[in-house]
Fold:
Amino acid sequence: MLKSMARAATTSDAFNAVAEPRRREILNYLILQERAVGDIVVSLGLNQSSVSKHLQVLRNVGLVHVRRNGRHKLYRTNAEAIKPLHEWTKQFERFWQHQLNRIKERAEGKPDP
Structure:
């Protein structure tokens, strides 16, 4: 009988945190500028409680920074923490580019090397 491996908590690292689609939506929304929770709620059509929970996870793994401005909390992405995600996904970009080049060569009748 196979034993299932325990799944890492979503708060354990950036990769697990961004596995959740809503968190990726929030990160995408925060790319260009710092935003208040209320802006995220309205723009993404999510409830405030859900947004706050997702932001807490993103904060815990370091993907977003927060600062206070009066009564408001403003969130922004942490580019340095996102960099490892980008570096890892670049491997797949190279893979797919290689695959597309092979398809193009076959379509043009060029032999594989």
